[in-house]
Amino acid sequence: MQELADKIDLLKKEIENVTLQSETEIEEYRIRFLGSKGLVKQLMSEMKHVSSDLKKDFGARLNEFKLFAESKYEDYKSSKGTSQNNAGKKPKESSADLTLPGYPAEVGSRHPIQLTMNKMISIFEKIGFSVAEGPEIEDDWHNFTALNLPEDHPARDMQDTFYISKNPDWLLRTHTSSVQVRVMKEGKLPIRQIFPGRVYRNETISARAHCVFHQIEGLYIDEKVSFADLKQTLYYFVKEMFGGDVKVRFRPSYFPFTEPSAEMDVSCFICDSKGCNVCKHTGWVEILGCGMVHPNVLSNCGIDAEKYTGFAWGMGVERTTMMQYGIKDIRLLSENDTRFLAQFKSVV
């Protein structure tokens, strides 16, 4: 071991004192020290003769010598290349005017869906609603059963569902009502919350419908909550969202999780109620479904339906976005065409 160590020290001193002038000398150095039959390889072959208890120390010392020899070679090689490249050449003068301002960075913008969702959330926060979110992959009980839709309920056919193939009890949520169930199960009353998020339905994609879209649902549960409270809440939202001139109408409807239930339409201001493909040439656009929370839903979530009542609603963010910005095809919102998205840079 001592003999090998002395040999490494001698070779290291030799490298420190050597001076290489030409490319030939540099190549000879490489072959002698770093080549396949060079001194570094020879020293490494001696590792088999070193006792086990000394191999760690000797290996570290040998590795240090190898790195030292390689670094000297790289230094000589780079200095020789630099000197050759610069021989007889004058440094180039830059033609760039360094006093000119730099190129401006491209400024992005918020997506119109996010702009609309932010505005909707802001409106409801002004009247005391807070935001709650939940998972997009949901189990059957939270998405359907707890909402008064048992397995054999025909209303399940109203929503074409993407099920998880490995476990059909799990699915991509069809509405953010599943988050309402989770909040109600916590039992912290009263509840006054909204539930924004992405949802999925196996629908044919067209100018008015998509299989992936966004919803904002709302829930208010307390003692003595009435349908009049629901109507006034939604009237306030529509006026704040679309302006005071928009017309509103409620139509009786059916949802298994609310009773009574209604759909709310607003006058189509894309065509000024004259008729277009967005309003199906009726002059009205349905923007949300709503109703009083069904007593069965309250009971399923552990809330006393004799003491508490509540209302809920759900609306599509894409449809509201189309109304807000006069967009006639929902597919534009998911195509990521920068020419389309660039129009919203000035929107705060």
Structural summary, described in words:
By secondary structure, the protein is an alpha+beta fold. The chain folds into two domains: 2-81, no CATH class; 112-334, Bira Bifunctional Protein, Domain 2 (BirA Bifunctional Protein, domain 2, 2-Layer Sandwich), CATH 3.30.930.10. Helices cover 38% and strands 19% of the residues. The chain has helices spanning 2-17, 23-34, 39-45, 55-86, 112-126, 140-143, 177-186, 227-242, 295-300, 317-325, 338-341, and strands spanning 130-131, 137-139, 170-172, 191-200, 212-222, 248-255, 258-267, 284-293, 309-316. The strands form two sheets. A seven-stranded mixed β-sheet has the order 1-4-5-9-8-7-6, sandwiched between helices. A two-stranded antiparallel sheet has the order 2-3. Helix 1 packs parallel to helix 4 (55-86). The model has no long low-confidence stretch (mean pLDDT 86).
- The poorly predicted ranges are none
Beta-strand content bin: 15-25%
Domain count: 2
Strand order of the largest sheet: 1-4-5-9-8-7-6
| Annotated CATH topology of the largest domain | BirA Bifunctional Protein, domain 2
Q: What structural class results from the helix and strand content?
A: alpha+beta
Oligomer: single chain
CATH architectural label of the largest domain: 2-Layer Sandwich
- The fourth-level CATH homologous superfamily of the largest domain is Bira Bifunctional Protein, Domain 2
The count of helical stretches stands at: 11
Rounded radius of gyration (Å)? 37 Å
Mean pLDDT: 86
